[in-house]
Amino acid sequence: MRLIVYSHDAFGLGNIRRMLAICQHLLDTIPEISILVLSGSPAIHKFKIPARLDYIKLPCLGRDRHGKLAAKYLTSDVTETVRLRSNLIETAIANFKPDLVLVDKKPYGLLGELKPTLDLLKTRSPKTKLVLLLRDILDAPQVTIKEWQQQGYYEAIQHYYDRVLVAGMSEVFNLVTEYQFPQIAAEKTVFCGYIKKDFSQIPAALVRQKLSLKERDKLIVVTPGGGEDGYPLIENYLAALSQINRNYDCKTFIIFGSEMPSAERAKLSQITNLYPNIVTFEFTTHLLNYIHAADLVVSMAGYNTITEILSLGKKAVVVPRHKPSEEQLIRATRMEKLGLLTAIAPNELTGSSLSQAIIRQFKNDSRVASGLNFDGLLNIQQEIINSLPIHNEIDFVFNEAQGNFYSLAI
């Protein structure tokens, strides 16, 4: 059983982290599966790559100072880079011969780079299944509807894709109605719930002990995700510390993010070095363990970060990114209305507003009980298995205790 995962990754670490979490779950629960990831993430090599998974690193695309897509490292222009990426994708799929292709977010890929491969599969490999994975929120409805109409994404779903899986809940954001999916696209769409990432859990008490925390001390974890635009969040948190420390004994764990520009990281490090109760990292694969041990998390409002915080029942103060899309702003607003976190609009972020929000959260003694569906990994797994052609030839027996599928050849 062969699966190809396409994740374009032009900005941040969210997409590749989410797709690798799905891959890991599939590998853990479907013994026969082999996965090839096609990704432009500049940080994919920093993640632990499990057995039966390999990846092809596509040339990186990023955003220039005007916000437009451009080659991140190569001197070639964006058209040449996309052509190269497109050829690599087509060659990989033609040679790997997957049973199913899982596409992240964009039906035609970034700048249409996936279109030649979709046509190839349609004509030469019609049995290969195509599944589109969408996160809970893409952008503001008016923006997304316009883009999908201009790019022909609704038609792409109708013509090429067998299924659309949404890693979210319609009760929080009904992507089908908000983005005006045509009936055929709507009928192919399944809401799977939020993705709760599996991780090797270290006891919170041990993490706190390693950080030399006393019982009364508060642990605050600050994470701006990939970090490319995380400087204002950390800068204002450091400005808020004096007010927070007047009220609570705190220790802070800051992850700058591997994409934060080195000059900005150096500037922030000069400040954090003045504080004995701040521990900093550029990147960590153990973020979930630190969040699990935290009393409060300060972050942006990316999909992965928010679901990780809420799935662990942690208090949070979030400052959503407002560009290049309104995705985080909408997510933060919806989650705040549900009483799950405190959100600060980017244009209202100051040291004072951040300290006040953190102190209010600490004074609130109630536990965070989200009531959200975090069975996304299991439901995505089931939908992928149901989509595979091999599903007709093999009986899958589900072990509820372990969440595993075992195959029995007929």
Q: What does the model show?
A:
With 410 residues, this protein is of the alpha/beta class. The protein folds into 2 domains: 2-196 and 374-409, Rossmann fold, CATH 3.40.50; 204-363, Rossmann fold (3-Layer(aba) Sandwich), CATH 3.40.50. Helices cover 39% and strands 20% of the residues. The strands form 4 sheets. A 7-stranded parallel β-sheet has the order 3-2-1-6-7-8-9, with helices on both faces. A 6-stranded parallel β-sheet has the order 12-11-10-13-14-15, with helices on both faces. Strands 4-5 form a two-stranded antiparallel ribbon. Helix 1 (14-29) packs across helix 15 and helix 2 packs parallel to helix 3. It starts with a strand and ends with a strand. Residues 391-402 and 405-410 have low confidence and may be disordered.
Give the arrangement of secondary structure elements:
Elements: E1 2-7, H1 14-29, E2 34-39, E3 53-57, E4 61-63, E5 69-71, H2 78-96, E6 100-104, H3 115-124, E7 129-135, H4 141-151, H5 153-160, E8 163-167, H6 175-178, H7 183-187, E9 189-191, H8 204-210, E10 218-223, H9 231-247, E11 250-255, H10 262-272, E12 278-281, H11 287-293, E13 296-299, H12 303-311, E14 315-318, H13 327-337, E15 342-343, H14 351-363, H15 376-387, E16 394-399, E17 404-409
Helix pairs in contact: 1-15, 2-3, 8-11, 9-10, 9-14
